[in-house]
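Regression test case RT-17, inverse folding.

Input:
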């Protein structure tokens, strides 16, 4: 029975190691996801800027087309003025020309704004492309580094799980089942140290008769409070 208790204690130590390794692996996997997401975000930002430039280019082309129409209207009206004979008609055409020129000026101003915005966005795109190229290179390097760490952790997990399997094969299946159930119920701790009359798993006082039975070491004894399997560990004298 003493050997089984020792094996249970070893099993718990291995499970602690595996749990910690899996937590570390999960953290690294999350970091890899963050690295990839940063690259995705940068690419999406670049695509959005390029799409915005295309949109503004279209708006600029529409303004230029409208400008051409207004200029043609002005030219036609100025030609027509030469054939006008009444002052009233002359003034009416003059107002049309003035309105068209005002509209043309407003369109030109809007066109210049579009050109300025396109130049600004184009500069931003060029800078972002440089940043993206550097990010892609760094991402590849960091991804490889993280993957190497993950692979090393996985190797350690595989080794510990092999050790775990070797131990569980030597224990009765019913005991392994009980141990696994306790781990699930007690936040990963199925085995607890008993010392000075206390269960260190739940810090509760153990019944004296039960505690004394631990000294015999001829049976598996569970804490009546938390049900963890108890292993006697006396305080070593100084």
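Golden output:
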């Amino acid at each position: 029975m003493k050997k089984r208790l020792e094996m249970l204690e070893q099993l718990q130590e291995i499970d602690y190691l595996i749990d910690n390794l899996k937590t570390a692996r999960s953290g690294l996997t999350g970091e890899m996801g963050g690295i990839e997401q940063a690259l995705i975000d940068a690419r999406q930002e670049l695509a959005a800027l390029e799409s915005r430039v295309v949109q503004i280019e279209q708006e600029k082309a529409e303004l230029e087309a409208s400008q051409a129409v207004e200029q043609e209207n002005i030219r036609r009206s100025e030609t027509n003025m030469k054939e006008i004979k009444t002052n009233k008609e002359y003034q009416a055409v003059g107002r049309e020309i003035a309105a068209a020129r005002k509209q043309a000026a407003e369109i030109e101003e809007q066109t210049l704004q579009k050109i300025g915005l396109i130049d600004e966005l184009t500069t931003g795109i060029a800078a972002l492309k440089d940043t993206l190229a550097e990010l892609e290179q760094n991402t590849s390097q960091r991804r490889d580094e993280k993957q190497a760490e993950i692979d090393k952790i996985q190797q350690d997990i595989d080794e510990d799980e092999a050790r775990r399997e070797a131990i569980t094969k030597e224990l009765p299946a019913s005991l392994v089942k009980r141990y696994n159930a306790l781990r699930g119920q007690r936040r990963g701790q199925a085995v607890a140290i008993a010392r000075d009359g206390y269960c260190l798993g739940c810090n509760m006082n153990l019944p004296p008769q039960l505690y004394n039975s631990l000294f015999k070491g001829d049976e598996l004894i569970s804490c009546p409070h938390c049900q963890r399997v108890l292993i006697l560990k006396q305080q070593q004298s100084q």
